[in-house]
Known about the structure:
Blueprint: H1 22-33, E1 49-50, E2 53-54, H2 61-74, H3 83-100, H4 107-121, H5 133-146, H6 150-158, E3 170-171, E4 177-178, E5 189-193, H7 194-221, H8 226-240, H9 245-254, E6 259-263, H10 270-286, H11 290-300, H12 311-322, H13 325-330, H14 335-350, H15 355-375, H16 382-391
Antiparallel strand pairs: 1-2, 3-4, 5-6
Amino acid sequence: MRLRFRPKPRYSRPRLTFPASADGYRALHKHLFQDLYEWAGQDRTVDTAKGGARFAHVPYIARELDKLFADVGAKNGLRGLPRDEFFDRLGNHINEINAIHPFREGNGRTMRHHAAQLARDAGHPIRIASIDKTAWMDASRHGFLTGDHRGMTAVLAGAAIRRDLAPEARIGPAGIAMLPQRAPPEGQRYRMTLSKVREELERYLPAARQQAADRLRGLIKDGAPTATIANARTELAYVRHAKGPVYQSHLLTYLGVRQVDAVITKEQSPLERVREIGAALGVQINAQQSAQLQRAVRSLERPALPPGHSPGQERLAELFLKNTPEKNNADPRLAPAQAIVDAAIKTARDRGESVRMVSTIGDSTRQLVADRIRTGGALDAEIGRVSDRAAVPPPQRKERGR
């Protein structure tokens, strides 16, 4: 009698859910990498950098991670948001985690699984395998160096399981987003400086994005022609793209272009106005030589911060200089720094220095402390002594008569 063995049925592994908190995020990392690293799930203890800019300094990792996830918790885990707004906030959230970079290794995979869980719980599921790896790396690098999260938003939205409204970008030279092809705009053209262009975009672009998304939904719902829907998708991608109109205005400024000619009227909606400005920017971009564009794009994407700095530390240093001493003392992140300044001022007063000299020593110490925050250096009392020695002039020697 021949015995036949049946293979054991395969059961899908139960989907684990991790709390949307800092500890939950660490638990996710431990679950993914516990077989590889003894320190899986633990914050890194060494500083790391990429492209000449450092990720969050070790003493700030836990605090910044707690703050970031507290913000997500206050927004109910990003639940209940329209699709476009959800992916916009998710892209920003993932970019901020990337800037913190809490683990020595495995940050990218942990971020992708975390993004997938947030998206699933919010009703906008994404497929991790559909995330374009090259686009992910480019968006991560661009977001870290510039703070612009729109590239990451586009990558995550592009991996959505339901892609009815997914924008399809029309890419021009050097990866620049372009509007749908159309006939030249009709009407009176007005000359606009690029600084005026940026003012207009800051005012109208947020509303234009929402109008573009609403327009696309309406066209799909009404069964509009395929070509019309495709153009609407391209337009939505343009107004949301990391290399869309705002980026293009900075690019043209770098190339020495001072103004564009756009068809602008008072009756235009925000989307119509941004559309005309975008068309004007496109005319100037298409007039540039490809090699010049490539060089300008590479220059703009270089780290804006010098080596040893990171965007988070730069913002903290700016906040320290902007705040009053009372605000700095009330902020746990800045209180130790303000204490150094207060001690230097007190020492100068106790020594009997003039009011003007006390003020000079205080300002000098504040600047030295801010520079130390930017580079992630230790905050110690030696900073105050250095500024004190620099501010107090050496005694002048009287020359003896000959």
